Automatic annotation (TrEMBL):
<dbReference type="InterPro" id="IPR001128">
    <property type="entry name" value="Cyt_P450"/>
</dbReference>
<keyword id="KW-0560">Oxidoreductase</keyword>
<dbReference type="GO" id="GO:0004497">
    <property type="term" value="F:monooxygenase activity"/>
</dbReference>
<dbReference type="InterPro" id="IPR036396">
    <property type="entry name" value="Cyt_P450_sf"/>
</dbReference>
<keyword id="KW-0408">Iron</keyword>
<dbReference type="GO" id="GO:0005506">
    <property type="term" value="F:iron ion binding"/>
</dbReference>
<feature type="binding site" description="axial binding residue">
    <location>
        <position position="426"/>
    </location>
    <ligand>
        <name>heme</name>
    </ligand>
</feature>
<dbReference type="InterPro" id="IPR002401">
    <property type="entry name" value="Cyt_P450_E_grp-I"/>
</dbReference>
<dbReference type="GO" id="GO:0016125">
    <property type="term" value="P:sterol metabolic process"/>
</dbReference>
<keyword id="KW-0503">Monooxygenase</keyword>
<dbReference type="GO" id="GO:0020037">
    <property type="term" value="F:heme binding"/>
</dbReference>
<dbReference type="GO" id="GO:0016705">
    <property type="term" value="F:oxidoreductase activity, acting on paired donors, with incorporation or reduction of molecular oxygen"/>
</dbReference>
<dbReference type="Pfam" id="PF00067">
    <property type="entry name" value="p450"/>
</dbReference>
<keyword id="KW-0479">Metal-binding</keyword>
<dbReference type="InterPro" id="IPR017972">
    <property type="entry name" value="Cyt_P450_CS"/>
</dbReference>
<comment type="similarity">
    <text>Belongs to the cytochrome P450 family.</text>
</comment>
<protein>
    <recommendedName>
        <fullName>Cytochrome P450</fullName>
    </recommendedName>
</protein>
């Protein structure tokens, strides 16, 4: 039978199933639903949004809906009825409402695991977040600076020095993956880390996709990569457990050891192996994917922004002058990189690594005069406020001064949401800042670059990716003497 016919029959069958399910789940409330349409069964508006993301028109796609229906509208995304909310007030509602539970699309749940921290609530979420926060508290982060410094220098020596051209995105992904896997999971360089890095190249491919497991789809590739990565992490978990039992590791050794050490009042483990593996999957993605995107797009921006480049180079030259060339960076040095971090925040505003995310209504709930029925998804997107000209004048212009103390106070609360907000604000935000600042310090001190592609575009699939991975012409730079 022809493959296209098979796929068509499957789609019809799923459509019928969707109709039966949605009728069975028809909300009992009598309130006013938001304007809009749920679209075709199962598919809804998912394909339209994904096409817009891949064509780099997703912000326009969102704005067109806002222009048509207002800041609150209903649609169907990834097989579930959804309410799109936009604007600072909507962001605050999404991040702080106790009636909204964190929920990712079914595709994300299947790939990252049913018990990952993004899905957990209540005591389970607090325990796992607490374990993550313990490893990311300031006194621990101080200890990480030197190890990140060494990893960045090694990476630049091996993969950048002496090269006429490099492709930035894959190199940044490997650098940040090596850093996070070393610091949070104790993975030294070698075959295991290489295998895990290979799997994570494809784990995110199908996270925003219609969750139909068919051959040759991005969703199937993600499922296979996820299964392979989970086997590796499960092996690491068992090895760490054995080390703890032999006294060769402690709760503070790494994140896996900490999660394994969590016990209840009777001394029984609080987390199953599945929960630990799921948490590790999310942590690996959060710890390397977003930072690598930020670094890549900053390199892209600085290639054609000589004024910002010169100001940042001066900032880093001054830091070296105060301590001597060749010395590793310290926590105190990072505090002096104020302009560099403002530039990073501005890049996060313009190209947020996470386009948007989902919540789930745990009960019928009202917002702006409309009812969001229990069980429906709520979708928020950073671009709705990040690119709002009434909040950030000339939003398409790269302007780090927006994030100076005085300027930042002008924007309404919950306008800048690159790291989220509220109880689920990114627990690794400070770690990402350290990783970014250390990497930029050595890149700016050692190299200059030009873009190889005249067409300076990018797509979202679902994370932003520049054309061809951002190939650049590279030249060694003689840094200013201290």
């Amino acid at each position: 039978m022809d493959l296209s016919l098979v796929l068509a029959l499957v789609a019809v069958a799923l459509s019928v199933l969707f109709l039966l399910v949605t009728r069975a789940r028809k909300p009992s409330q009598r309130g006013k639903l938001p304007p809009g349409s749920l679209g075709l069964p199962v598919i809804g508006q998912s394909l339209g949004l994904l096409r817009a993301m891949r064509a780099n028109t997703a912000e326009r796609w969102i704005q067109d809906r806002v222009d048509r229906y207002g800041p609150v509208s209903k649609l169907s995304l990834f097989g579930a009825p959804t309410v799109l909310l936009t604007g600072p007030a909507a962001n605050k509602f999404v991040f702080f409402s106790t009636a909204l539970a964190s929920q990712q699309p079914r595709s994300v749940q299947r790939i990252l695991g049913e018990r990952n921290i993004l899905e957990l609530m209540g005591a389970d979420h607090k325990r796992i977040r607490g374990a993550l926060a313990e490893f990311l508290r300031p006194d621990m982060l101080r200890l990480y600076v030197g190890r990140i410094d060494a990893e960045v220098r090694r990476h630049l020596d091996e993969s950048w020095a002496g090269r006429a051209t490099v492709t930035v995105m894959p190199l940044m992904k490997r650098l940040t993956f090596d850093i996070i896997s070393l610091l949070l999971f104790g993975l030294e360089r070698g075959a295991v880390r290489d295998a895990l890095a290979g799997d994570f190249k494809h784990v995110m491919d199908g996270t925003w996709a219609v969750p139909v497991d068919l051959p040759f789809t991005a969703f199937r590739r993600s499922l296979k990569a996820s299964a392979s990565a989970r086997r590796v992490i499960a092996g690491i978990t068992r090895e760490t457990k054995a080390k703890l039992e032999r006294g060769e590791a402690s709760r503070s050794s790494d994140l896996i050891a900490c999660l394994l050490s969590l016990t209840d009042d009777s001394g029984a483990p609080l987390l199953s192996e599945e929960e630990i593996v799921d948490t590790a999957m999310v942590s690996l993605i959060a710890g390397h994917d977003t930072s690598s995107i930020l670094l890549t797009f900053l390199i892209r921006q600085l290639a054609d922004d000589p004024d910002t480049l010169a100001a940042m180079v001066h900032e880093h030259d001054e830091i070296v002058k105060s301590k001597g060339d060749g010395e590793a960076l310290t926590w105190e040095d990072l505090a002096k990189m104020k302009l560099t971090w403002r530039a990073a925040q501005e890049m996060l505003r313009m190209v947020p690594p996470v386009f948007g995310s989902f919540r789930r209504a745990t009960k019928d709930i009202e917002f702006d005069g409309y009812v969001i029925p229990k069980g429906w998804q709520v979708f928020w997107t950073a671009a709705a406020t990040h690119m709002d000209g009434s909040i950030y004048p000339e939003p398409d212009k790269f302007n780090p001064s927006r994030f100076e103390t005085q300027s930042a106070s002008v924007a309404p609360p919950c306008s800048f949401v690159a790291f989220g907000a509220g109880p689920r604000i990114c627990v690794g935000m400070e770690f990402a800042r350290i990783e970014t600042l250390v990497a930029l310090h050595y890149l700016l001190r050692r190299f200059r670059w030009k873009l190889c592609c005249k067409e300076n575009t990018f797509v979202r699939d679902p994370a932003p990716s520049p054309l061809h991975g951002l190939p650049i012409e590279l030249a060694e730079h003689k840094a200013a003497s201290p």
